[in-house]
Amino acid sequence: MVKTINITADVPPIREMRITLPADGPVGPTDLVVVVISRKQEGSSTLGQLLQSIYFGMWRNRTDIADSCEFAAKLRTNAWHHTE
User: Cα separation of 39 and 36, whole Å?
Assistant: First the structure.
């Protein structure tokens, strides 16, 4: 038997929770899978943070990319055709 139970809760700082399963839940050896999805939205990065990141300028020394806009458009086109 596979049963999905969704629980919305506030996790305390000690990160311990007690879960009471429904009466029709399994008894005995059971595998429980816990998926934690944070509801907090991370703040968006600022331009300054982006400029300081490892990703900014990572391809600047590539000699095979003359026009970065054209290169990006080609990548998108190729990716689009591969998904069809």
Answer: 9
